[in-house]
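quick one, 736 residues, struct below
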Amino acid sequence: MTSNFFAHTPPKGSAQWHGLKEHLTKVANLTETSANKLQAGKLGYYAGLWHDLGKYNPDFQEYLKQCALGNKHAKSVPHAIHGAKLAAKLSLAPLAFIIAGHHAGLPCVSKLKSRLADPQSEAADLAILDTAEKEGIILEPSSDITAILAEFQDKLSRELFIRLLFSCLLDADYLDTESHFDPQQSLQRTPVATVTDLWTKLEDSQTQMLADVVEKLPDLNPQQQEVNRVRSEVYQSCLEAAEQATGVFRLAVPTGGGKTRSGLAFALKHAEKHQLDRVIIAVPFTSIIEQTVGVYREIFGEAVVLEHHSATKSKVDDEDARAEQARARLATQNWNAPLIVTTTVQLFESLFHNKTSRCRKLHNIVNSVIVLDEVQTLPIRLLEPIVNVLQELVDRYHVTVVLCTATQPALEGDNPYLKGFSSVKDIIQPATATAHFRHLSRVKYEIPERNWSWADVVADAGDSQQGLAILNTRKDALELLKEFQSTVEPDGLFHLSTLLCGAHRRQVLAEVRSRLTNKLPCWLISTQVVEAGVDLDFPLVYRALGPLDRIVQAAGRCNREGKIIGKGRVVIFTPEDGNMPTGEYATAISQTANLIKQNPDFDNPGIFQTYFRALYQGVDTTDGKEVQACRKILNYPETAEKFQLIQDITHPVAIAYDAIAKKLLKNIERYGLKSADYQALQPYLVSLRDREFKQSADVRREISPGIWLWEGGYHDVMGISMGANAIVRDPADLIF
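---
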């Protein structure tokens, strides 16, 4: 018997309606499959089966018919609340949350209770359930289903469980709806490789790389040979540690020690060993994400690596590239890929979000390896909720977390200032790691006794042909840049900060690398955007006094490859006229200044444990926004609002930087913003703080809703010109 109840109208050009019972059953099965990873398959099944019960409402069926007839004024009929009411009546509160929110997002308790208590829909509820029962929809599951919920007595555990179950339902609903409206697109979702495929490719690549290294050994100086020896030891340690059980791991590798490749080797071999589904690499900075993706794509090819962040560049416009882009765009929706490179903002703000588009992928974090690159960059004010969620993923959801950096924060154990991970396993044993840091010590630190003016920096540089200076603020970088302009030829002087759009920064880095390789004059004046992970190798580095981890990361841009016989020179100076960022950054500088007075050993990785513990003690709280309190009362919207890695309110403005940007902006102004335009626009955006944005009203123009074209000054070295309104602080170069 054919049912007369439908979930969706026919797709364009078709007469095939989407049967409601068919939709409910398929979504139930898909949700159950995903929820099995949470040990909650039956809960997932009923979430899927009941999520659209409200569509049995005759008013909703009439609405669909009007839509099919082309009536653009047809009034939608809310349908999510009816299944939520059934779940609540059966004491299945998690299902009430996720069913009620499967379109609008996870609600808070008070709003959900208000909707569930609405007496006006009682008659409709009864009629809908009666119809659903006649259609064969199970409305009374077995009593043992509630036993699943007994596992989640801890409030924070329950909050994350509901969020992950929500993700299972969302993805199932989207996938089945997509298979109805666009079956061809649905077929594109099959991943092109498995974790095992990637591990095999990496093994082959490593064998070839080692052969190349052996061939070049006679031409390398002793320091370069030592670099290669340490890299080989690090890689081997990663392979051995990958055999261990899932958990939280620490990979402490000195700059230049091959962390990117070795960390991936651990993750892939570990994933294959424990039958994990994917590896997720989370990177904090725009300046290194493309570099990381480039390394991986050299090994695996273009199509295998899923790059998910707002600044992803469009590929060449040919048939193969378009097919790859379409597949990648689909995979970013639910992270159904074996290797994902994303950002810490994308990863963590999704884990604490309530909106459907951000939560859909979360169930695919289960059963994975998460590599947190440059983990020391995580904001201290949010460490408590971050560590709590990661520990829960490890304890319940078969996840391994890798804390990856040369400057390891103190995230293990309990102390009065941070409840850390219950256990952290060292991939490289502390004694071996200390030896690696000693062996790869390639710089000599100098700390002048007095404060320096900008002129002092230039005077100390003297006739040096190549050097890097890193400042704490954009304003300081511009001041030192002006000072260097009197002594350095224009074609050898460069500047990097968030005053430059992404495309401009990429161009600067490419030119700097070329000049360094070809031994041409090259001075780079920068903010912290080059500090962590950027492949630059200068003989001389100046670093304004800053957080200890930033100083050591900056030193990693000096004599990186060990090409200098002896040691490179790193000068830590206190600017006479420098500006100071506020908040955590200022606290970190203060702690560093105190530590420097004790004549620390910068080549001992143990120094960072002392430093970070003192830093946690010096800040007000590691849950500055009380995110955990919101999570405990299941206030999902407020949790999302409070958990923001980037605190400052910023407004992007578009720079007509090159011919591609000019054409793109012209088309947006003429035809409006199309779906692909926003991503293509990312490399040409500069973010202005709220005050800067308001003060620049006369030099920006809105060419499409929310898209502002910058018509003020943009310098080919200094970037966007704010004139007298130039702000002191430099916003974190995080992306989402």
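The radius of gyration is 28 Å.
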